[in-house]
Amino acid sequence: MSFRPRFGTRVRRGLAFGLLLLGVSPARAEIWRVPTQIFTMATAIETAAPGDTIRVVGNGGATYFVNLIIDKDLTIEGGWRADFQLRDPEVYVSVLRDTNGVFIRPVVRIDGSRRVVIDGFHILGGRFGLYAEGAADLTVRNCWFREQENGDDILPFGGK
Length: 160
Prior knowledge:
Radius of gyration: 22 Å
Helix content: 10-25%
Largest sheet: 5 strands, parallel
Number of helices: 2
Strand order of the largest sheet: 1-2-5-8-11
């Protein structure tokens, strides 16, 4: 009669299963800060991984001249104080403004079926302030849109 320790087998199986779970668990979402960690909004969007959050300093009227293209799941929050300890979009105003002022493109464009949250921005200019293409799951909170020049006879991307 041979003796097989059952306890050892269970422990090995448990360790193997635990390691398997660790290997497939999702990565922790990062928080990127503009302009302290990353200087521009476009670079922050390029650097961020799907599911990350981008926090943007406001400080009473910080203006970012952009035409952003978002092609991944992101949360973008404006209205942060410079130390990122307090957020109030009405006090620490973050402005996204059209780069060229000729109203050709949207200020922010979401491509494809992405889950995007945009919260706490003043969005100025552009053909459209915000344009979502495809089946985007878009949430817009605490945003103000002004000075857009949208019309029926113009393509949203300036004839892209």
